């Protein structure tokens, strides 16, 4: 579909440093990011799906001014682990790169999270830049500095808060993204509406068809709105002491699904979608949402081709996996639930029996 050019820049203010999110189309990626590279060494980290699509022009442009190395990782959530981080370190060491290096993440959230973690830990911290190429990474993972890898028993269990120097979201990259991955990104977009802005939910209900038809102007508008919400939250609570936890809506349930089903079998966004329904059902049990709200949530997720029911997981197994959630405090599971559409809270105001009911197959 032909659409008008989208161009916008947002600023993220954090205690670490401020950085821009450039949202654009058909960009010369190398030229866009070059001004934010402070040394002469660059390591581009990508994967074997994204490399054939977008690596060559980026590498060529950067090679005019920088000493550029490349690390191509295997594609998949199942490779978001220490082996991949070691591969990044190996390339950095082989090239004798030092604290002047800037790591460039070219890919989706998996590449971005791992590149950020490698940057946070190599020589105790070097610069990195995010070039997110999935909708999910453009609306969420490239912003805010949560970096890391999975443990076999839990998602993102090892990591660091480490902010990028800049984020370049080129909407044109979405034209090659598989439809299932676009839908996975829409889950995080819908998440922002449910936790922060009921008017945005209404906007989405109208605009989802255009987004799914790859109208880049509408997608760009959605990316801008989501990044603005996230930038605002991260500016107030960079390290998740409080308010930032709201961005975890659906994730305590969703991470259980991803871990239990085997990393990569349920996409992150798919698991979060089903998890948001579970959280909404629990919110309804508490009298905070009404039945029509829950139906509306299920409908908007279904409209985006997302699952609204979790896979079969034994209740005790799910509770055991939930125990690893990073929001657990003094042994107590804390959940993000909805007080109303557009308003989320971090809470322990639910009975364990209610949580068990939600986790019991067929309740949602
Ligand atoms: N750090 C954060 O704040 C944060 C936020 C949300 C999600 N995450 C993490 O992000 C990950 C999910 O990210 P994702 O949904 O981007 O998945 P992903 O990185 O696995 O990318 C999805 C798939 O699309 C491919 N791909 C990427 N760009 C493409 C393009 N332009 N054209 C064609 N194919 C392309 C990838 O190779 C992969 O196969 C999870 O690990 C999740 O935990 C992190
Ligand atoms: O940025 C955040 O904060 C989020 O929680 C965004 C989530 O969408 C993202 O999936 C994040 O990686 C989950 O973090 P975790 O701390 O639960 O691992
Ligand atoms: Zn997420």
Describe the structure in brief.
Helix content is 45%, strand content 18%. With 364 residues, it is α/β, with parallel strands linked by helices. It is globular, with a radius of gyration of 20 Å.
Description of the molecule:
Helix 3 packs across helix 4 (109-121), helix 5 packs parallel to helix 6 and helix 10 (268-285) packs antiparallel against helix 11 (291-303). The chain has 2 domains: 8-176, Rossmann fold (3-Layer(aba) Sandwich); 179-359, Dehydroquinate synthase-like - alpha domain (Dehydroquinate synthase-like, alpha domain). With 364 residues, it is α/β, with parallel strands linked by helices. It starts with 7 loop residues before the first strand and ends in a 5-residue tail after the last helix. A 4-stranded parallel β-sheet has the order 4-3-5-6, sandwiched between helices. A 3-stranded mixed β-sheet has the order 1-2-9. Strands 7-8 form a two-stranded antiparallel sheet. It contains 13 helices and 11 strands. It is globular. The model has no long low-confidence stretch (mean pLDDT 97). It binds nicotinamide-adenine-dinucleotide, the ligand O=C(O)C(=O)C[C@@H](O)[C@H](O)[C@H](O)COP(=O)(O)O and zinc ion. Zinc ion is lined by residues 140, 188, 251, 268, 272.
């Amino acid at each position: 579909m032909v659409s008008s050019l989208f161009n916008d820049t947002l600023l993220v203010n954090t205690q670490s440093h401020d950085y821009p999110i450039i949202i654009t189309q058909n960009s010369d990626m190398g030229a866009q990011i070059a001004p934010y590279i402070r040394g002469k060494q660059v390591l581009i980290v990508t994967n074997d799906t994204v490399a054939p699509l977008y690596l060559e022009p980026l590498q060529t442009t950067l090679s005019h001014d920088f000493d550029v190395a490349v690390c191509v990782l295997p594609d998949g959530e199942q490779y978001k682990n220490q082996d991949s981080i070691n591969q990044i370190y190996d390339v950095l060491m082989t090239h004798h790169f030092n604290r002047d290096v800037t790591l460039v993440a070219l890919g989706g959230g998996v590449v971005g999270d791992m590149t950020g973690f490698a940057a946070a830990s190599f020589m105790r911290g070097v610069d990195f830049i995010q070039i997110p190429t999935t909708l999910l990474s453009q609306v969420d993972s490239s912003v805010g500095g949560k970096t890391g890898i999975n443990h076999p028993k839990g998602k993102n269990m090892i990591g660091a808060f480490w902010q990028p120097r800049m984020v370049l979201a080129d909407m044109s990259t979405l034209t090659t993204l598989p439809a299932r991955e676009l839908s996975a990104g829409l889950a995080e977009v819908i998440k922002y509406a449910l936790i922060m802005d009921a008017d945005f939910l209404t906007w989405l209900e109208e605009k989802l068809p255009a987004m799914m038809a790859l109208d880049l102007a509408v997608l760009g508008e959605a990316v801008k709105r989501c990044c603005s919400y996230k930038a605002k939250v991260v500016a107030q609570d960079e390290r998740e002491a409080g308010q930032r936890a709201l961005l975890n809506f659906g994730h305590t349930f969703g991470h259980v699904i991803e871990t239990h089903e085997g990393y990569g079998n349920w996409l992150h966004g798919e698991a979060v979608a089903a998890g948001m329904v579970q959280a909404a059902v629990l919110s309804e049990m508490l009298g905070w949402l009404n039945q029509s709200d829950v139906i509306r949530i299920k409908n908007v997720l279904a409209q985006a081709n997302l699952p609204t029911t979790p896979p079969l997981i034994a209740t005790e197994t799910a509770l055991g996996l939930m125990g690893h959630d990073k929001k657990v405090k003094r042994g107590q599971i804390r959940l993000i639930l909805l007080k109303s559409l557009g308003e989320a809270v971090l809470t322990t105001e639910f009975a364990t029996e209610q949580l068990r009911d939600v986790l019991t197959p067929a309740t949602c």
